[in-house]
Amino acid sequence: MSSAEGNKSRRTLVGRVVSDKMDKTVTVEVSRLVRHRTYRKYVSLTKTYKAHDEANECKVNDEVVIEESRPLSATKRWKVIERRAAE
Predict the structure, then answer these.
(1) Which domain holds residue 36?
(2) Which among 18, 54, 67, 77 is least buried, having the fewest CB atoms inside 10 angstroms?
(3) CA–CA dist 58, 53 (Å, integer)
């Protein structure tokens, strides 16, 4: 069995960079729509993740795809795998 077959599929999320002030780290805001149990109205929930950006190429407002990874620091558990520049 090769290493690619042994890996579980990792979660990926699409979000927007809200901070790039740290070295090799960006803060990514991911929003999702959830239906409220009682009122049946869709509510937007946002959550922020710290993601590893090896080349420091991501800038604020860029859309990025992040992938779950092993713990890289006390708060970093995600890596940037794709960057779509803001227009």
Answers:
(1) 9-84
(2) 54
(3) 7
